[in-house]
Specification:
The complex is a heterodimer. Chain A is α+β, with helices and mostly antiparallel strands. Chain A contains seven helices and ten strands. In chain A, strand 5 and strand 6 form a beta hairpin. In chain A, about 25% of the residues are buried. The chains are: A alpha+beta, B mainly alpha.
Chain lengths: ~190, ~350
């Protein structure tokens, strides 16, 4: 009995644990967050092992139908990944009447609130509301700090991917702004 | 959704009521938590490596507790053993103070022409005697409580080491969604600030204690290591600590005039040790964590001592630093555009 214990204990190393957890021979294997994140564009450059580590820093929160995830104008501290369910983004949302100007609806494998993770004293620019029972995986500032301290390469990779997406959005916004400016200039000229 | 909020507040209230009804747990629990915070940075490095079995965990915690408690117990027993000597010296201390004051009185009278009244001296002497009596009465109680703490502190520390993160994770599940984001971020900031501060103060105390001990030992001063330990311990208290730490050495010199020990050498060692702390240790370790105005620090210490005694004086600084962060957050929330 004791010998068995000693044998099991000696096998308890991170590498063996990882190989066992990813092995198809493992009958206890259940599809976890790892499978979910493998499909996500944001984590395209992550290896399986890196995704497994990354998921350890996420916090699971379950929201009921019509429950507000965050309000417009609140200080934001993190990014949310939709594991299951639907989330609608509103501007000028009134909680009492459950009404507001709907901007878009996000489904599983999409994410929102990334500015809250990157910016200091970020204000949420819109409200997020669960449209049905929704499971969210949140990554908040303290989790990101911990990830950067304990696994700097993975933390840096995540930040780079987020920065690339943000840069793409800034590029799109700049183009939009240029178009608008051109329209304004044309309008002023026509006057 | 609402039930979860009620349950959360009920749990919080129950916890506070428990500590209010059973304050005896509070001190060992507080010390164990402080101890856990001191070792936390080492714990992350060591325990997440290879030391995972229960036996190794226990050995690790036991040896760390012993490392801190053995000198502390030795120090308290040394005081307890020398209690009669200290008591017999009390009249000499009084005479010493009176002599000093009368010298100052006659000096001011002769040189400046100011007549100092003797009343403040009498008042001060009676206050000191009263403090002395209460201290002497407190030491045997402290020594007897220490035996209780010797059992409880390692036990609590062990569970803090082993299960604190799991307990924290589970308690986070109790928090309602509407409060979660803010609560989680603020508690994380508090934990970070608090543990960094306690760890930095511990390192600072060890460095100062080491320099004082070695310095006193080199000049052949009696009880060098106990005095170094005491200087390190009192150094945890900002501003007041260095003076409190120096007091026993000052009294030893004052009470042994024929033993060829001068004030100069001893004072120099304390001043040098405190200067090393002030210029080399404090700026790199502590000041970057607690960015508070000196006046606020002083006021906080007074409030801390009134609310929680010595322990209150130690923990009040990181608490105030956290309150500053929280006020900043609240200000940001108030100044929002909606």
């Amino acid at each position: 009995m004791n010998e068995d214990r000693g044998f099991n204990h000696s096998l308890e190393t991170p590498l063996l644990k990882y190989l066992w957890a990813s092995s198809p021979l493992n009958l206890n294997f259940v599809p976890d967050y790892h499978q979910y994140f493998k499909k996500m564009r944001l984590l395209d450059s992550f290896t399986d092992h890196e995704i497994r580590i990354f998921t350890r820093y996420l916090r699971k929160r379950v929201f009921q139908q019509d429950e507000v995830i965050f309000h417009q104008g609140e200080t934001g501290y993190g990014i949310y990944f939709i594991f299951s369910g639907l989330v609608t983004i509103y501007s000028n949302f009134d909680e009492k009447n459950s009404r507001g100007d709907e901007i878009l609806t996000l489904k599983s494998s999409e994410y929102f609130g990334e500015m809250g993770l990157l910016e200091n004293f970020n204000k949420r620019t819109a409200s997020a509301v669960a449209k049905e029972t929704t499971v969210l995986l949140g990554l908040f500032k303290p989790d990101l700090e911990k990830l950067l301290e304990q696994h700097p390469v993975i933390g840096a990779k995540f930040l780079r991917e987020t920065a690339l997406i943000m840069a793409g959005r800034i590029g799109d916004l700049t183009k939009e702004m240029m178009k608008l400016r051109k329209i304004i200039v044309d309008l002023e000229k026509s006057k | 959704m609402k039930n979860k909020i009620y349950f959360f507040y009920f749990s919080l209230l129950s916890l506070l009521t428990f500590f209010y009804l059973f304050p005896r747990f509070l001190f060992p629990l507080g010390i164990s938590y402080l101890f856990y915070l001191v070792i936390k940075p080492v714990r992350v490095k060591v325990l997440f490596g290879t030391m995972r079995s229960r036996v190794l965990y226990t050995c690790f915690v036991a040896s760390l507790v012993a490392l801190v408690s053995i000198p502390l117990v030795g120090f308290l027993f040394e005081i307890d053993d020398n209690l009669s000597t200290i008591l017999s010296q009390a009249p000499r201390i009084r005479v010493l103070f009176y002599e000093g004051y009368f010298k100052l009185q006659s000096f001011l009278h002769l040189k400046v022409g100011i007549n100092l009244s003797s009343d403040p001296m009498r008042l001060m002497a009676s206050q000191i005697e009263r403090y002395g009596e209460s201290l002497v009465g407190f030491i045997p109680t402290l020594v007897s409580s220490l035996f209780e703490w010797i059992i409880l502190i390692p036990l609590f520390s062990y569970f803090f080491f082993k299960e604190s993160e799991e307990i924290y994770e589970r308690s986070l599940q109790l928090i309602p969604n509407s409060l979660f984001e803010k609560f989680y971020v603020l508690t994380s900031q508090f934990n970070k600030k608090f543990s960094e501060y306690i760890f930095a103060k511990f390192i600072e105390a060890v460095i100062l204690g080491f320099f004082v001990s070695v310095g006193l030992w080199i000049i052949g001063f009696p009880h060098a290591f106990s005095l170094g330990f005491f200087a390190g311990l009192t150094n945890i208290l900002p501003y007041l600590g260095p003076f409190l730490g120096y007091l026993p050495a000052f009294l030893i010199v004052a009470l042994s005039p024929g033993e060829n020990i001068g004030y100069g050498g001893v004072t120099l060692i304390y001043v040098l040790a405190n200067m090393i702390d002030l210029f080399f240790v404090f700026p790199f370790l502590v000041s970057r964590i607690v960015n508070l105005h000196p006046l606020i620090v002083m006021m906080s210490i007074i409030v801390g001592s009134q609310v929680g005694g010595i322990l209150g004086m130690i923990v009040i600084i990181p608490v105030v630093a956290f309150v500053k962060i929280m006020l900043k957050e609240i200000y940001q929330d108030v100044s929002i555009y909606r």
